[in-house]
Design a protein that fits this description.
- A hairpin with a 2-residue loop joins strand 6 and strand 7.
- The chain is globular and about 40 Å long.
- It has one domain: Immunoglobulin-like (Sandwich).
- The chain is mostly beta strands and 164 residues long.
- Strands 1, 2, 3, 4, 5, 6, 7, 8, 9, 10, 11 and 12 form a twelve-stranded antiparallel sheet that branches.
- The chain is built from no helices and twelve strands.
C-alpha cells in the first residue's frame, strides 16, 4: 500500500490516513483505496451527487511518459463514476468507458473502495488521489504527490507512480 499525503492547506479532522494499491491486470489497471479514521464523520455521497470530485471520491489519473494526454477516472463510494480524456493539461472532457465495477466496504474506522479500468500496454504514469468531504463541510485533498500551490491533481508533478 502506498500512502497518500494530505495537502497542507486542507487538513482533515476525521481522516487519519489514505492508502492506495495499484496492480496491472489483463487489459487494465486495478486500484484499491483505504481511508482510515472516523468514517462516521465523513459525508458519503448518495447516487447522483455530481460532479463527483466535489464530494468524497477516489481518483486515478493515467498517462504515458513523454506525452501530454491523460485520462482521469473518478470513483464514488455511492457507486457512481466518471471518466475524462485530456489532450493536454485540463483540455478535454467526459468519455464513455466500461463500468469500473466499484466495490465499497465500510466500517466505523475504514472505508475501502476498489475499481478497475481498461489500460493499454506499456509503462504508465499514474496519479493517485482522493477528495474527502466531512459532514461539517470541510474538504481535504489527498495525493501521492502534490504540485506546488493549491490542490491540483491534474498537474504533471502529481503523476508520481510508474507502472510497468
Amino acid at each position: 500500500m502506498i500512502a497518500l499525503a494530505c495537502h497542507p492547506e486542507s487538513r482533515s479532522r476525521a481522516v487519519r490516513s489514505v492508502h492506495a494499491e495499484v496492480t496491472r491486470k489483463a487489459g487494465g489497471v486495478a486500484v484499491s483505496y483505504v481511508v482510515a479514521g472516523r468514517i462516521d464523520e465523513l459525508k458519503l455521497p448518495t447516487p447522483g451527487m455530481h460532479p463527483l470530485w466535489k464530494h468524497t471520491c477516489c481518483e486515478l489519473f493515467v498517462a504515458r511518459r513523454g506525452g501530454t494526454a491523460y485520462h482521469e477516472f473518478n470513483f464514488s463510494p455511492s457507486g457512481d463514476w466518471a471518466a475524462y480524456a485530456f489532450t493536454d493539461y485540463r483540455q478535454g472532457g467526459p468519455i464513455e468507458v466500461g463500468n469500473p465495477g466499484i466495490v465499497v466496504r465500510a466500517s466505523s474506522e475504514t472505508l475501502e473502495l476498489k475499481a478497475s479500468v481498461a489500460g493499454g500496454a506499456g509503462p504508465l504514469l499514474l496519479a493517485l488521489s482522493a477528495v474527502i468531504e466531512e459532514r461539517a463541510g470541510r474538504l481535504s485533498y489527498w495525493a501521492l504527490r502534490h504540485a506546488p500551490g493549491k490542490p491540483d491533481f491534474h498537474h504533471r508533478d502529481a503523476f508520481a507512480l510508474e507502472l510497468g
